[in-house]
Amino acid sequence: MEWYLPITVLPGIALLILSTSNFVININQEIKQLKQEEDRYAEIIQLKLAQLRRLSIAISGLYLTVLFLTLAGLLASWEEDGRWMSVSLIIGITIMVISICFLISFSIRAVLIRQKHLRL
């Protein structure tokens, strides 16, 4: 495998990191606003904190994905047999899939939380 193939995925992952960090910032702002009426929105605040935790796990996983895919690219240029490159690539892709599952879970739950919030 060519050394640059694992690295070609990095711009797409960077977009995921950017959008996820924007979500983190927005949820932090929402929680701050809801804290002003904590009595009324206590349950929503807890749900949003869980969302924030999910996003933090996802963004950490995406950072790890970048690390492992970059490492795979470097190893591909150095190794003869490509064994460690393949291991790094598989780990990176596995972490990326798990992170995307966290983002999907976040998205589905975000709609439910928004509906609950608007009913109050």
Give a description of the structure.
- This protein has 120 residues and is mostly helical.
- The protein contains three helices and no strands.
- The longest helix has 41 residues, at 38-78.
- The chain starts with 9 loop residues before the first helix and ends with a helix.
- The mean pLDDT is 92.
Short summary of the structure?
The protein has helices spanning 10-35, 38-78, 83-119.
User: Which regions have little confidence, pLDDT < 50, spanning 5+ residues?
Assistant: none
Annotation field: number of helices: 3
What is the beta-strand fraction?
under 5%
**How many β-strand runs?**
0
Outline, from the CA principal axes?
elongated
**What is the string of helix and strand elements?**
HHH
Helix content estimate: over 70%
Radius of gyration: 18 Å
List the helices and strands and how they pair.
Blueprint: H1 10-35, H2 38-78, H3 83-119
Keywords:
single chain; 120 residues; mainly alpha; elongated
